[in-house]
Design brief:
This protein is an alpha+beta fold and 470 residues long. It is built from 15 helices and 9 strands.
Length: 470
């Protein structure tokens, strides 16, 4: 497994942990929602009984409400309210909320009670935070409770002690409305919550990659700071060594050691001087690389497998006088292109072709593999976070086989970094005579070509004579 695979694996595992943690509900959220429910239920029951003078089984209703209040008090005293509860605990707490509401509705008219729509609340909370099995279970429980309440319930509180005789068709419409609302709310809220978590996790993954890139860039500053801090003690060591060398007898055995110490301290000072002035002494030959050499550098770590990798670098129009572009060594471009090439090698049947062309206006790199190509059902979404035809990372990952699964973050991060460098990234499947997948990365030449950029930069020393005419 390559270094990039290992880095992506660690990022994906970290993102997995963050997503699992973010999906957990805080106990305080559940407690607050239940307090709101307790207060609303208490006010409603008391108003119906004392203000509207409808006959309500007051003692039984208050007992049911009191159980929820005592449960909240117990949870607040037993655990810290800021603690995040797992799916199992949150699922059972929401199950209790559904059953408590169903019992309260049973005492007050069943499905005919206008507050039946409150079944949406626990299902919506579950859809936003719990796994799919729990959501399906809670929706099924709510459906069963609504169905039973349509036939089994105490009379609906009404003026004069009687209960309105609602037609069966009307009750069927209420049942249909409640169930439709439950299913729609569950699907919609789950989709929105999952999309929000995916985007947050993708942003976190991109930030981690960019943070590593920034750490590499910060090494130059750290080297300069270290050279500055070490300069004074090293000068003291060199001074003391010279003094000891001057005071030592000509034939003393320590003379050779002192000479070595003086020479090595001088060498250290020279190294520190280069580090401190690295920005002014950068090797232009190393900091810049031709497009063909860059392609060879990226492909070199991928050679040695059963996949043949062919590289072609040429002008887009041979009749156009266009010299080969020179790139700056940009970690974003290096990471992005290497990731795309590694994906091509992973999916290729036998051959990967890398074609780099350039003109006076544009630089284009195409990576083509002869594999099965992109699956049609994800072709339009390739490059979005967490879109992949591979299963996720798991404990069965075998680094010895060279095979690995993915979360769909590699292409997303590579595409993001390349677009930050000014590129346009497009993905497509090959034609019938050339199957496989093709990824095209195109830059405006003025953005990446260091020679063209420097040649078109105005000469500040020459300047221009200002126009003083009126």
């Amino acid at each position: 497994m390559s270094q990039t695979d290992s880095s992506t694996l660690s990022i994906n595992r970290s993102i997995n942990r963050d997503m699992e943690q973010a999906a957990r509900l805080r106990l305080e959220t559940l407690v607050r929602l239940r307090w709101v429910a307790v207060l609303g239920q208490l006010i409603t029951v008391l108003m119906v009984h004392f203000v509207l003078k409808f006959p309500v089984p007051l003692a039984a209703c208050l007992a049911v409400i009191a159980v929820s209040a005592w449960l909240n008090i117990f949870l607040s005293l037993r655990w810290r309210r800021s603690e995040r509860v797992g799916a199992w605990s949150a699922g059972w707490l929401l199950t209790y909320d559904i059953l408590q509401l169903a019992l309260l509705l049973y005492l007050t008219g069943g499905l005919a009670n206008p507050f039946t729509f409150l079944f949406l609340v626990p299902v919506t909370v579950a859809a936003a935070s719990l796994p799919l099995p729990w959501i399906a279970g809670l929706v099924t429980l709510t459906l069963a409770a609504a169905s039973l309440l349509a036939f089994f319930h105490l009379p609906l509180p009404w003026a004069g002690g009687g209960s309105p005789n609602l037609p069966l068709t009307y009750l069927a419409g209420l049942w249909t409305a409640v169930i439709s609302g439950l299913v729609f709310a569950a699907i919609y809220v789950r989709s929105i919550a999952a999309e929000a978590r995916r985007m947050a996790a993708a942003l976190a993954a991109t930030e981690m990659v960019l943070a590593r890139e920034q750490q590499l860039s910060a090494l130059d500053g750290l080297a300069a700071a270290a050279a500055h801090e070490l300069g004074t003690p090293l000068a003291t060591i060199a001074l003391v060594a010279k003094e000891l060398r001057r005071e030592a007898k000509p034939n003393a055995p320590i003379i050779d050691d002192l000479d070595l110490l003086v020479s090595q301290s001088a060498r250290c000072r020279e190294i520190l001087s280069r580090l401190a002035n690295r920005d002014a002494q950068r090797d232009a030959m190393y900091e810049q690389v031709k497009l063909s050499a860059l392609m060879e550098d990226l492909v070199a770590p991928l050679r040695g497998s059963d996949i043949a990798i062919a590289i072609t670098t040429r002008p887009a129009n041979p009749r156009e006088a266009s010299p080969e572009p020179v790139f700056a060594r940009n970690p974003a471009i290096t990471y992005g292109l290497s990731n795309l090439m590694e994906n091509a090698v992973d999916f290729a049947d036998g051959t990967v072709t890398v074609t780099a062309t350039w003109s006076l206006q544009q630089v284009v790199v195409k990576v083509h593999d002869d594999g099965p190509g992109f699956a049609q059902y994800i072709l339009d979404r390739i490059g979005e976070p967490f879109v992949t035809s591979r299963p996720g990372y798991d404990a069965a990952h075998d680094p010895l086989t060279g095979e690995h699964e993915g979360m769909g973050l590699g292409v997303f991060i590579a595409k993001t970094l390349l677009e930050r460098s000014g590129a346009t990234v497009s993905l497509a499947n090959g034609a019938a005579d050339r199957p496989g997948a093709t990824i095209t990365v195109a830059w405006p030449r003025r953005v990446v070509d260091q020679v063209q950029t420097s040649s078109t930069t105005p000469d500040k020393k020459a300047g221009t004579r200002p126009n003083t005419s009126l």
